Amino acid sequence: MAVRKRCRSSGCKASPRCAHPWWLDVRYKGVRHRMRADDFAFARGATAPVASKEEAAKVWEPKFIAEIVSGKDPRLAPERKEVPKPLTTVAQLLKLYRTRYVDVEPLKSRAGMVSQLNVLNAHLGNLPATALERPDAIEDFKARYANRAIATTNRYLARLRHVCNWAIGRDLLSRTAFHPRGIRIPAKSEHRRERRVCEAEEQRLLDACTLLNEPARPTAKLSWDDVREIRARADAGVPQNKLAVAFRISPAVCN
Predict the structure, then answer these.
(1) In this structure, which of 4, 29, 44, 124 has its CB flanked by the most CB atoms within 10 Å?
(2) d(C-alpha 131, C-alpha 175), whole Å
(3) For the chain, what is the mean pLDDT?
């Protein structure tokens, strides 16, 4: 393993202090690998030629060796990963949210979420994604839905709040407009549904309460009324053997 200049064999008397390029020269498993340090560095993001032996040895030679050991050909430029385009609109953010969250997570209300996202996309999709960091766009959406039930509007706002929090956790947004001094969801203003049980339901509830006094299982010998009677007689001084005979149980149970 070495970093050297090949100009000495050509008669260069100033080597290695000359301006000729540095070479990476490595032998691995009986095979010699040689390459100009500049060619290797430029293919991997360098912006200037390798000017010193120290730079070639400390920066580029370890990478050169690592590619050889991993089975790669260092003479080939590595494939550049495509940098994902930044989100520019709310529509792109909602699409990404659906792809990575709604369609992936085991959710029971997926159809409802998709419907909410479609409504949000129709009203906010053309806005820049950063518009969700300020309350203006969301307040305009609330104003357009002012004639709807409060609970309906709150469901859309809650979904949008979850989208913003999800995006912040993935560095897609820097902040959210949903906070105590920003957008608030007035859940207390929702109309609560009140319903009285019918006579049939009321009778079923009473029947269920009656069953509480019955034995817990078919093989049980005592009900709760029997237990209370045994305790009352035991407190009154009735002997255990008499209680056992009267209720057909073991005397040990009559403590």
Answers:
(1) 124
(2) 11
(3) 84
Nearest-angstrom CA–CA distance, 44 and 63: 10
CA distance 230 to 247: 8
pLDDT of residue 53: 85
- Nearest CA among 148, 159, 161, 160 for reference residue 189: 148
For β-strands 2-4 and 31-36, DSSP reports them as: unpaired
Supply the pTM of this predicted model.
Answer: 0.47
Mean pLDDT across 221-241: 82
Indicate the burial class of 177 (C-beta count within 10 angstroms; 0-12, 13-18, 19 or more). Answer: buried
Instruction: Quickly tell me which residue has 């050909």 as its tokens.
Output: 73
Rounded to a whole number of angstroms, the distance between the first and last alpha carbons of the chain is 90
Return left, alpha or beta for 237; rule: phi > 0 is left, psi -120 to 50 is alpha, else beta: left
For residues 168 and 175, the answer to whether their CB atoms sit within 8 Å is yes
Mean pLDDT across 187-210 = 80
- Contacts of residue 156, defined as CB under 8 A and 6 or more positions apart, other chains included, come to 116, 119, 120, 141, 145
Q: What is the mean pLDDT of residues 6-17?
A: 79
